[in-house]
Amino acid sequence: MTSTIDAIQPHVPTFSESDTITAEIEATGRPNKTVGEPFSDSPRMTCRDVSVFYGTNQAINNVSIDVGCNEVLAMIGPSGCGKSTFLRCLNRMNDTVAGCRVDGKILLDDEDIYDPKVDVVPLRALVGMVFQKPNPFPKSIYDNVAYGPKIHGLTKSKAELDEIVETSLQKAGLWEEVKDRLAEPGTGLSGGQQQRLCIARAIAVSPEVILMDEPCSALDPIATAKIEELISELRLQFSIVIVTHAMQQASRVSQRTAYFHLGDLVEVGPTEQIFTNPQHQLTEDYITGRFG
Ligand SMILES: Nc1ncnc2c1ncn2[C@@H]1O[C@H](COP(=O)(O)OP(=O)(O)O)[C@@H](O)[C@H]1O
Ligand SMILES: [Mg+2]
Question: Is any atom of ligand 1 closer than 6 Å to the C-beta of 80?
Fold first, then answer.
């Protein structure tokens, strides 16, 4: 597989560009404005001036970005820069973290997900999450996928439920491997299969957005390649936001890439441009391996 990252051309910022940015960082210690194009013509999610605090410690500083329909948005940046924190804002997973406060506005299809009227249970079906370590329930393969549709009351009959389980496993690229052993425990599958099972579980409740936090970091290269292929297929139906520390992965699966640094959203742009012609010095330093 070839990737844009293999063909990185060193980016030489124009004089005025690097000058402005350098002056900005010298003055404030931080870039105070995201470089590039954080907004989308057809947004599925709209995030404006989002800040996140753990107690008094600010982990995300005034981030504004859209997640487009049918796009894979990659989030990259050095460890601790706030990628997981920001991702968790998108389905209010930070609500479960004691002392965590989220400011700003996040809309899903024009609805404010932080409105006190919003019930987080259906929200987390619409904006599903896949974690770093595959975490199937200690249940059968079938029940792992059927659980969500059951608790959300999405089906009226066993036949309908069977149908959802089958199509979800098909979309997750797992059906052929498990169709003859649906009653066996999900935890008995290989790591890569478990991760695809978790993706099937997210798909089963008809999400609009799927969040993935380093979904391949516990997997071998072959299992990783399968998940990456799957992500490209899922984009046709869902919006996907993926946090990854593997820049090759971002360049293979995503259309847009967002670069975070110390809680700031430094730069967002078309993935190929971010990896071949970044506009911000901090982005360039990161993608050329100067730090991270
Ligand atoms: N549950 C938490 N409680 C307190 N601080 C946290 C918590 N989770 C993350 N942080 C802090 O927020 C910052 C961003 O962390 P994180 O979002 O995990 O970064 P990344 O995913 O980019 O590695 C770090 O300084 C981290 O220590
Ligand atoms: Mg993280």
Answer: yes
Note the pLDDT of residue 32.
58
Q: Which atom of ligand 1 is nearest to the CA of 55?
A: 4
What pLDDT is stored for residue 60 in this prediction? Answer: 98
- Both tokens of 96, joined, read 């479960």
Q: What is the Cα–Cα distance from 49 to 28, expressed in whole angstroms? A: 18
CA distance 65 to 46: 6
Give the number of the ligand closest to the Cα of residue 82: 1
Kindly report the CATH number assigned to the domain that includes residue 166. 3.40.50.300
Overall domain count for the chain: 1
In a domain, 114, yes or no: yes
- The C-alpha atoms of residue 125 and residue 113 are separated, in whole angstroms, by 13
Q: Supply the angle between the helices 191-203 and 158-171 in degrees, to the nearest 10.
A: 130
CB 112 within 8 A of CB 106: yes
Does the pLDDT at position 11 exceed 70? Answer: no
Beta bridge partners of 211: 129, 241
Average pLDDT over residues 236-250: 96
pLDDT at 232 over 70: yes
Which residues span the domain enclosing 148? 38-287
Does residue 33 lie in a domain region?
A: no
Q: Is residue 13 part of a domain?
A: no
pTM over the 0.85 mark: yes
Asked if the structure places residue 191 within a domain, the reply is yes
Q: For residue 129, which amino acid is it?
A: M
Ligand 1 pocket: which of 54, 75, 291 to mutate (most atoms <8 Å of CB)?
54
